[in-house]
Amino acid sequence: MSSSPANQPTPPLAPPTHVGGNLQAGIDVGALFTKVLLLRNGKDVVGTDARPTTMEPEKLAREMVDGLVLRLGLGKNDLSRIIATGQGRRSIGFARGARTEITAFARGAHLLRPDVQVVVDIGGQGIRAMRLGEMGIVADFRTNDKCSTGTGCFLDTMATALEVDMENAGELSMGSKTPETVSCTCTVFAESEVVSLVAKGRDKQDILAGLNVMVSKKVRAMINSMGSHGVVMVAGGVAQNPGVIKSIRELVDREIVVPENPRFLGALGAAAMVAGPSTSSGGEDAPVAATQAENARSFLRALFGGERG
Amino acid sequence: MITAGVDLGSTYVKCVVMKDRKRVGHAVMPTGHDHDRTSRDVLGKALGMAGLSGDMIDRTVSTGYGRRVTSLADETISEISANARGVRWVGSKYNVRTIIDIGGQDTKVIALDQNQQMINFAMNDKCAAGTGRFLEVLARVLDVPLDDLGKMSMRSDDPVDITTTCLVFAKSEVANLIFAGHSREDIIAGIHRAVARRLVSMAKKVGVEREVFFDGGPARNPGMVQAMERELGLKMVVPELPQIVTATGAAVLAAESLASK
Predict the structure, then answer these.
(1) Does one domain contain both B217 and B260?
(2) B84 lies in which domain range?
(3) B113 & B228 share domain
(4) pLDDT class for A19, splitting at 50, 70, 90?
(5) Are A128 and A121 spatial neighbours (Cβ–Cβ below 8 Å)?
(6) What is the per-residue pLDDT for A21?
(7) CATH class as words, domain A23-108+264-308
């Protein structure tokens, strides 16, 4: 997600309704990672950063936003507005508004691919699914943050048990031809099961592939609960794992699209919201004017990387 | 007539030796990796307590999740049946109508009719919340020995709310609670209350009727018992040796199956 090519024509966006600069920041404070994305003029992605969430999320987010702005050679005054999302969104006092991750992911997905009907966010501590209706407005959603199975936490726990670096786990699992069956559904019990599979000499890549199947089954259940048969976008940190995506594609009989930087979809959605006219800070976002969304979309597709696969 | 009941649980193996349907020996050992070997060791220990030898045993019944992996057993029986039979033996003085049996890796609620026959049951072995594992893992996070949880939580008068359900998330939550300066006593009391709430909501689906019998390893923990009684709003029957009720049931069933031959 590099900065915008200089030769792109300026889209006929509606005149800015804000004063004081042309950058919009989206901050997604997740359970495990905080993601920040900067947009320029509500359309060009000009910076991203992701760092582990700390006990002081506001301080961390401030540092990340300032760092990105500074890298562009700009100052705080160039930030027109800042919107926070994610489960820690309320702790970001300097943000001008807070939106649920449901709204943010939906907005991000609709901007990248207007034909997306279902969005699944596989995050560090929860899985969320949303069904998008007219103009990308959320028609229905379901969240599961009671159980860690299938989340980033789940895969982290298993990678540790397998003594595999999480970064490589996805690639490693792709080589499996015969995924192991992991029968326990609970992360805690499955961890013991994985340890005993290793003790029995089973192949790590087959165990990893079996764990990906567990994630996929959970994701499939969430997708099915949305009752739509259209295009599904899978995002969130876990969507960075190619093994999980491969397994979801094998298990779910739908068109599955994944944005190039799936962990930033929530931050993108939050940042994109501020580009539209907003009624008041902190409230629900007003719908972005259709033409404006369409303009932003064509540019984001080019600049954010569109989608993969 | 000498019989033995061996209960191979996920965390501990329990054994009871009976002579003419009276308990004469019992033992408990961590399950370890070799279930068969552990079951032999634990039987040896129980026999030692009874002053008996292995060749004197007339019949052995195994139960629990590892019941099929021991070579000791003449017969296997489900832990639900063994537990219900054990409660009839241990709690014969009481009109037990509900059994709440909390294990290391699962939890069962059994409803009995007036004749103490099983009429319904529920089992959770899908999720670590509401099992002994929840207490075991969080005790480690708190750096408190499992056996000290009870007496420490009894000193709390302000249990902390544990808001997460999943044990994986609860580990982080407890770590954060320690960091935020809450006392271990209040955190432990909060953990007991969280487990009790899950167990009681499960029990209510099956139907709670007095007397309520509470057994399984975590029933040895007086803080857990207190939290359960608060959530249920009634006093439960808690046996002196709650961990070996199911093994006792298996030993009684071994005697009954001999008698019926």
Answers:
(1) no
(2) 1-91+243-261
(3) yes
(4) very low
(5) yes
(6) 60
(7) alpha beta
Question: Are the beta carbons of B126 and A148 separated by less than 8 Å?
Answer: no
DSSP letters for B73-112: -SEE--HHHHHHHHHHHHTTTS---EEEEE-SS-EEEEEE
Check whether residue B80 and residue B114 sit in a common domain: no
**Residue extents of the structural domains in chain A:** 23-108+264-308
A236 min Cα distance to partner chain B (Å) = 18
Contact A146 B179 (CB under 8 A): no
Q: Backbone phi, then psi, for B137, in 5-degree steps?
A: -70, -40
Its pTM stands at 0.83
Q: Write the residue in A125, A147, A199 that is nearest to B127 by C-beta.
A: A147
> Do B67 and B141 reside in the same domain of the chain?
no
Q: How many CB pairs under 8 A join A and B?
A: 35
Q: Is the pLDDT confidence value at A165 over 70?
A: yes
Q: What is the CATH number of the domain that holds B33?
A: 3.30.420.40
Residues B200 and B110 in one domain: yes
Residues B112, B134 within the same domain: yes
Q: Which two tokens stand for residue A252?
A: 């779910």
On whether both B67 and B145 belong to a single domain, the answer is: no
Q: Which residue of A has its CA nearest to B32?
A: A196
Q: Mind listing the pLDDT tens digit of every residue in chain B (261 residues)?
A: 999 999 999 899 999 999 999 999 999 999 988 889 999 999 999 999 999 999 999 999 999 989 999 899 999 999 999 999 999 999 999 999 999 999 999 999 999 999 888 999 999 989 999 999 999 999 999 999 999 999 999 999 999 999 999 999 999 999 999 999 999 999 999 999 999 999 999 999 999 999 999 999 999 999 999 999 999 999 999 999 999 999 999 999 999 999 987
DSSP state of B207: -
Token pair 């018992």 is found at B225
Q: Which of B126, B128, B165 is nearest residue A146 as measured by Cβ atoms?
A: B165
The C-alpha atoms of residue A200 and residue B104 are separated, in whole angstroms, by 23
Q: Is the pLDDT of residue A9 over 90?
A: no
Residues written for chain B: 261
Query: Among partner residues B105, B164, B168, which is closest to A187 by beta-carbon distance?
Result: B168
Chain A residues with CB-CB distance to B132 below 8 A: none
Mean pLDDT computed over A278-293: 42
Residues B80 and B134 placed together within one structural domain of the fold: no
* Rounded CA separation A244/A238 (Å): 8
What is the enclosing helix (H) or strand (E) of B150? Answer: helix B149-153
ipTM of the complex: 0.86
| Contact status of B163 with chain A (Cβ, < 8 Å) | no
- Whether the upstream peptide bond of residue B136 has omega within 30° of 0, thus cis, is no
pLDDT tens column, A219-251: 999 999 999 889 999 999 999 999 999 999 999
Contact state of B168 with A185 under an 8 Å Cβ cutoff: no
Q: How many structural domains comprise chain B?
A: 2
| Chain B contact probe: residue of A188, A191, A197 with most B CBs at under 10 A | A188
